[in-house]
User: Which sequence fits this backbone?
């Protein structure tokens, strides 16, 4: 490659700095630009590797001089700088697109509105027992940096719709779509169809030699498959239907059939609880079966998997009240699964940045399981309008420590206190991890 090829990276976080290092190694002239402040640890990496960077500004002349731009998934397409790049015909791609060009690994790519982190971690847990496999995407060290430092034979990638929007040639051997429900609609002109199409970019380059594993109980996915021609070999999974090629639940067993080769996994000892986690287990087991992992290994992996931080995580039991951290539930559907799995009266902590939420599907659970609601956000009007008449106690706060203290006063022996916000965290917290950690700290300080 000629030295003149200029790679500009917008965003100096994990994916940006990983891409900068890989780009430099592949002979690009690299420039990193961040409108915000680049964290100290990332600045040091850029300085130590003599990579040019700037923060708290975008120098237009340098950026619009690029041959290719890698954009952090957090930057919307509608910002002026991205619009200017596209107008000039400069390709704007994601880290996933860039890094995938430099590896011949077998890639398992997982997307979906909910369940993708758990499914990615569970799939990685199954595969790592017998294969050389990395875990990247929305999770852990950047994909680009792993391709540079190690280049595993296989990767499990958790991929958001924002990352898929910047994918054009990317083609995973195995794609998984866990489910599709309205989410991030603010990024898609409030058009659900745009968001659905974005998720299905994961299979845009697949052929019949590649696989799409998907939830056959999800009407949105079924509708899209019915109306769009997809080349992939389809491997559905279902809790309610008998599936000939794919996975389904038969009483207490998961049955997985691929090319007439069937394996059976009992569900009774699966480490993760809840119906949605049986689906996650089906998806992960199907990948294991496809990649020739031994049945015994798959079974043991499902039984000893530790789960994901901030996703229905039991924190502590205090005075016979169980405190549960589900901060990762940043949309209504994720909270639906959380409330569905509650088997005791629940004090529910909810709220944050509403992304155009419709709370109606939660109403049956509120009537049946929720005894009090604590609204934790800067604007709780919609929550109070939606749930105010459904519970006897509904209170507002803007502090996690206060929310937990109020819950402590309300909850009685045998109850649950559940943080499952159904909203993004950016009004009061850095991100959902910060929100979850603050919840756990407040519980430990009771």
Assistant:
């Amino acid at each position: 490659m000629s030295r003149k090829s200029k790679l500009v990276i917008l965003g100096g976080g994990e994916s940006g700095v990983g891409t900068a290092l890989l780009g430099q190694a592949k002979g690009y002239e690299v420039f990193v630009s961040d409108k915000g402040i680049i964290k100290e640890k990332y600045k040091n990496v850029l300085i130590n590797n003599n990579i040019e960077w700037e923060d708290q500004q975008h120098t237009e002349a340098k950026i619009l001089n690029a041959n290719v731009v890698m954009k952090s998934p957090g930057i919307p397409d509608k910002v002026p700088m991205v619009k200017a790049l596209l107008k000039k015909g400069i390709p704007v791609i994601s880290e996933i697109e860039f890094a995938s060009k430099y590896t011949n690994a077998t890639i398992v790519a997982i997307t979906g509105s909910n369940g993708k982190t758990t499914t990615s971690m569970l799939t990685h847990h199954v595969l790592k027992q017998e294969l050389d496999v990395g875990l990247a995407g929305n999770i852990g060290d950047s994909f680009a940096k792993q391709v540079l430092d190690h280049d595993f034979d296989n990767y499990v990638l958790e991929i958001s719709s924002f990352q898929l929007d910047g994918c054009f040639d990317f083609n995973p051997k195995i794609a998984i779509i866990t489910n599709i429900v309205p989410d991030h609609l603010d990024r898609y002109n409030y058009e659900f169809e745009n968001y659905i199409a974005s998720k299905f970019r994961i299979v845009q380059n697949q052929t019949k030699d590649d696989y799409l594993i998907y939830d056959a109980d999800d009407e949105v996915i079924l509708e899209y498959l019915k109306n769009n021609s997809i080349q992939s070999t389809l491997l559905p999974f279902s809790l309610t239907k008998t599936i000939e090629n794919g996975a389904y639940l038969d009483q207490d067993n998961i049955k997985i059939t691929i090319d007439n080769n069937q394996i059976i996994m009992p569900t009774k000892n699966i480490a993760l609880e809840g119906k949605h986690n049986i689906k996650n287990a089906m998806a992960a087991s199907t990948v294991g079966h496809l990649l020739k992992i031994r049945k015994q290994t798959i079974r043991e992996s499902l039984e000893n998997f530790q789960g994901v931080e901030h996703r229905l995580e039991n924190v502590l039991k205090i005075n016979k009240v169980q405190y549960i951290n589900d901060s990762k539930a940043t949309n209504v559907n994720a909270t639906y699964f959380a409330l569905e799995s509650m088997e005791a009266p629940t004090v529910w902590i909810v709220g944050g940045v509403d992304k155009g939420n419709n709370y109606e599907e939660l109403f049956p659970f509120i009537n049946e399981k929720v005894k009090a609601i604590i609204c934790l956000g800067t604007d709780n009007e919609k929550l109070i309008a939606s749930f105010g008449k459904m519970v006897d106690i509904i209170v507002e706060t803007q502090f996690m420590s206060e929310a937990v203290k109020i819950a402590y006063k309300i909850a009685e022996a045998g109850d649950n206190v559940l943080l499952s916000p159904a909203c993004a965290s950016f009004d009061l917290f850095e991100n959902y991890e910060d929100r979850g950690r603050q919840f756990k700290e407040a519980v430990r300080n009771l």
Observations:
- The chain has a mean pLDDT of 93.
- The domain at 102-304 is CATH 3.40.1190.10 (UDP-N-acetylmuramoyl-L-alanine:D-glutamate ligase).
- Residues 314 and 324 are 5 Å apart (CA to CA).
- The two ends are 60 Å apart (CA to CA).
